[in-house]
Amino acid sequence: MTGNVLLTGGAGYIGSHAAAWLLEKGWGVVVVDDFSNSSPVALERLAEIVPGADLRWHELDIRETGRLTEILRSEGVEAVVHFAGLKAVGESVERPLAYYSANVGGSVSLLQAMDAAGVRRIVFSSSCTVYGEPETLPLTEEHPRRRASSPYGRTKQMVEDVIEDVTRSDPAWRAISLRYFNPVGAHPSGRIGEDPAGIPNNLMPYVMQVAVGRRPFVAVYGDDYPTPDGTGVRDYIHVVDLAAAHEAALTALDDRTGYRALNVGTGKGHSVLEVIEAASRATGTPIPYKVVERRPGDVAATWADPSRAREELGWQAERDLDAMVADHWRWQSANPYGYAPPPSDQA
Ligand code: NAD
Ligand code: UFG
Question: What pLDDT is attached to residue 1?
């Protein structure tokens, strides 16, 4: 199916890539974003990457239920992909109410607006953080959701539950939570990509900012984990593969009723040192690093069993770590300061 889909948070890192993918496939895309962690430049570039695309956007906080209902109605929206929210794990410990308000309150507001507008299909951006510390690997969807290690993680658990309850209350609702593992990479055009505010929390943007000369070295958080080289292992997934999973989920909602949670990963784990080595190869220059203390709250290793998504969505990841770092580097090297101009050009 194609149709009109509303992307909350569609100007953000993953949302903008999902928008590009859906526009390329002929969907009408309506973005709602308050630009609290993104730039409208990403949307301008989408129009450039996909000429003639049916892209509309509204600056709005998703907690404005009334305006959101109006947009859902007036834009003829048939389904929603819900990316909007706050995502910094450490910040969520410092500012839990901001996270519960934006992530839980925002999701409830969105579901109320959808209900009022008669739009009852939703794909939700969840996270592998809902599993808590893994008991067994790879992580299947049957792994228990243990208490998440941060308020951020708990918001993802809560919103999954809210959406499941809503689908149980009325068979007209259809929903899929996609539990992302570690999204990295960028659109192959190099025109859109990840643009974290301030010092990046995540490994790949940090590595890329070192490669581009914005930071002196990567701090590797511990090399004494029970992993092959002692550094943390994660299931990195190319953001374009992740974008494709959203279209597959939207299409699956044509035939599927009720609620389902699905892992979105490659099924392969890579260590911090493997990522640094791959980035050194892609950038053609060794990336300096120093091993430091473990980061509190980090787990040794996570990777997905993605077979349920393969079976139920007909989707699987296609891009390997070398493609992830090559595409991330193309974006970072062409846009060293992300969507902002270099400091010398700023007034
Ligand atoms: P992002 O910050 O780049 O995108 C989120 C977007 O939502 C931003 O454009 C922001 O301006 C917008 N937004 C935030 N609060 C809003 C509000 N109240 N109303 C309207 N817009 C609002 O983050 P991302 O990496 O693209 O993540 C997208 C989703 O995927 C999030 O829900 C995140 O929790 C989830 N997720 C991300 C990762 C990851 O590593 N990036 C991993 C697992 C899950
Ligand atoms: N790491 C470093 N140095 C850095 C940043 C990260 O060594 O500067 C290491 C971490 O210790 C970890 C790996 O690189 O071993 C990946 O770390 P990220 O911060 O990139 O990713 P996380 O797996 O910690 O976090 C991701 C998402 C969160 C989500 C979490 C759930 O970014 O949103 O998975 O486990 F909550």
Answer: 64
- SS3 letters for 24-56? HCCCEEEEEECCCCCCHHHHHHHHHHCCCCCEE
CB-based pocket (< 6 A), ligand 1:
8-9, 11-15, 33-38, 61-63, 83-87, 102, 106, 125, 127, 180, 183
Answer for the pair 56, 27: CB distance below 8 angstroms, yes or no: no
Interval 41-52 mean pLDDT: 96
- Encode pLDDT of 129-162 as tens digits: 999 999 999 999 999 999 998 999 999 999 999 9
Q: Can you tell me whether residue 73 is helix, strand or coil?
A: helix
Look up tokens 């699956």; give the residue: 252
Q: Is the CB of 179 under 6 A from ligand 2?
A: no
How far, in Å, CA of 105 to CA of 42, rounded? Answer: 26
pLDDT one-digit tens code per residue, 48-92: 999 999 999 999 999 999 999 999 999 999 999 999 999 999 999
Q: Is 202 in the pocket of ligand 2 (CB under 6 A)?
A: yes
Q: Which numbered atom of ligand 1 lies nearest the CA of 63?
A: 18
| Catalytically active residues, by annotation | 152
**Cα gap 39→47, rounded to integer Å:** 14
